[in-house]
Amino acid sequence: MPSKKSVAPTPALTAEQFKTSVVKHLRTTLGTYEEKASKQAWNKALAAAINEFVFEGVSRTRKTHANVGARAVHYLSLEFLMGRLMSNNLQNLGLYSVAEEALKSLGLEIADVLEEEPDMALGNGGLGRLAACFIDSMATLSIPAVGYGIHYEHGLFRQEFHKGRQVERPDQWREFGNPWEICRPESAQVIKLYGYVETVYEQGKLSKVWHPGRTIRAIPWDIPVVGYGGQNVNVLRLWESRADKFFDWDVFNSGGYVDAYSESVEAETISKVLYPNDETDAGKELRLIQQYFFSAASIADVMRRYKAANGEDLANFAKLNAMQLNDTHPAIAIPELMRVLVDEENFAWDEAWAMTRETFSYTNHTLLPEALEKWSLKLIEKVLPRHMEIILEINSRFLTQEVETMWPGNNDIKRKLSIVEEGAEQMIRMGNLSVIGSHTVNGVAQIHSDLVKKDLFPEFDALWPNKFVNVTNGITPRRWMKACNPRLSALIEQHIDTDWPRYLEKLTGLKPLADDQAFQDSFMAVKHENKVDFVKEIKTLTGVDVSADAIFDVQIKRLHEYKRQHLNLLHIMALYRRVLIDPNYDMHPRVFIFGAKAAPGYKIAKEIIFAINKVAEKINNDRRINDKIKVVFLPNYRVSLAEKLIPAADVSEQISLAGKEASGTGNMKLALNGAITIGTMDGANIEIAEEAGSDNVVIFGMEVDDVVALKNKGYHPADYYRSNEELKAVLDWLEGDFFTPGEPGLLAEVKRNLVESDPFMVLPDFESYCEAHQKIDALYRDKKAWAKAAILNTASLAKFNSDRSIQDYAQNIWHVKGVEAKS
Ligand code: Z57
Predict the structure, then answer these.
(1) Domain count within the chain
(2) What is the catalytic activity of this protein (predicted)?
(3) 3-state helix, strand, coil in the chain (%, to 5)
(4) Catalytic residue set
(5) 23, 305, 758, 776: which could form a disulfide with 717 (CB 3.0–4.6 Å)?
(6) Domain that holds residue 40
(7) Which atom of ligand 1 is found nearest the CA of 364?
(8) 647 within domain boundaries
């Protein structure tokens, strides 16, 4: 037997003591008592009891980090998709079973109390969830780090289905307060906007003075981020916008109360709502202001902290501060730091520029042109007149010095690399600005990083051969295994050290058990129990009855054409048709499970949701197919629902068109929990196949080279439509009223889109995808082979621990080390 090492401390706290604390908080913090308290009150009392440890940790960590003067990381992101914090904090503090026992003695199930917490959905999808996993890992690795973002009043919309169509409802995560956050008014900042720039000559020196048209206050809310083991607790600092002066007293005194108030409404609009677009540039003025608002507040905050610790001399500023740009969304921070250094701190341009480049690094998350941010030059000039000047200065120095030296007289290259895109309207390319202003640029999986160099920024790569690197994404195994899959965690802990959530390589210790009949049985028994739990969830959410003996085939991610949920749909329709043609069609029963939100303005994405819902309704109510196929589209997919579904998944759908999914992270979560991937050679699927072994994933479809070749040859979807009988039949099926009785043509747009344009090449991959599903079916029926493959997935996924990603960033990009806080 190996030793059972554990990282999570055994707290010097009994369940009895913890119970006393919860009850004390119920009475004194919540103002109620045991006989009367609602579940919600218990939830808050529990949070307050936990916070006694959390906030101690915040202070302890802050003191430690202030004392050592190590380089610190500032992770700038417009999105942090945190989900719920209670179970995670309990797990990371090592208090989960103590809390469970304490609540039991009060007559409460911990699961019911945890359900009362709303998700903190301050993000759209992968990019936002990655930021959340990364701050968990930075805290766990004791890296001095702060996450900076926006304290949105409304996070991502709540999704409902009305007659199969998506309807968006406002998210109200803070309606009843948030026990995890602390307001820090003493660290508020004032942010300038609009106005004009004055050029001033003083003692022979030219300088610029920005006279803002208005100012906004930025108020920080701190959310503790508890590292695993509970020693180190970092913070996520989220900025809320407020009117600079709540009332204009003169207007107020002359009877204009409402006018005085209206200015504050406008200011507070900035942090009102998260933009719900994933991978599309909204291009709206308010969005630019959001980006600037939080970037400027964060830089001012970093400055203030630097000066408090080091005095007014900024010589070591860049040595002590790294800033990571999570996509180009905070790229305006680059000219903002230049403005602060040059205009406010009187640095010479070259020195300021060297410091800026030493500070920033940039993560690219996509190659999709529609996601690459561009702002109209006119708009930036209006909102941030001084920044527009600085951007143009950065650009002109870059083009006339660096580009001219490398490619003398080459105007084509200058046109390509310029921050300014010329055309009917001049546009500012935020990607170019980010590359030019950063010391390092990374992609998020190996293939994506290669394509960033080869296709997106080839000339920049030629100019700076060492600037572009890869850091493959990861997920935190604390939330995505230990907390969400307690049965599997308990099973593996019978065989490996209990510190696996910190040292995920220890999962390789399960490999020798992949062939062991007893372990296979236990592993699949865990999966089955998780499925039985989820069957109830499906019934509650959709009213559909499904069997836990069916294959649970899961596609959960934002709805986007490139992710090809409609490819999944076409295959489901083909299966359905086969069973209608041949009632004895041989297949293991399957439940197809979808979860996805569409951006509210993304028409075809919403049509695809509608089509899946209508096909689902028809199939689920068709007695002829004898329950062989069920289709459920779970409404309001979000982090807390993912935590319930992923442990119950058998099959993981990762079917993007090759070259389009930068990495994917759901693919990692599902494989870690023992689901078999059916996927294309795209993003991190490639690395998952490499780690798990190609026998233990099912790969299909065109690869990047095939996609390029087909595009060059000329892609005509109608050719594929005509030449595959089954494909033609299912596409035609969308046209009549079979799935929308009495209302023909409601799904026709989905067919038209595929046959007439098919921008993500669904049709050419259809046949190969169907064959891949036959392999899944055959493998599942070989119970031993399936169990072995599932176990090998779990045992092989250590690479995708976000701790490993963060170690890569720390070593290769930030040049920082962990600093352990001492109790
Ligand atoms: C987003 O969630 C991602 C990329 C974007 O450009 C935007 Br905007 C939002 C996703 C990628 O699509 C995923 O492939 C990737 O795993 C994730 O970012 C995290 O890197």
Answers:
(1) 3
(2) [(1->4)-alpha-D-glucosyl](n) + phosphate = [(1->4)-alpha-D-glucosyl](n-1) + alpha-D-glucose 1-phosphate
(3) 50, 15, 35
(4) 365, 557-558, 563, 665, 669
(5) 758
(6) 9-68+86-118
(7) 6
(8) yes
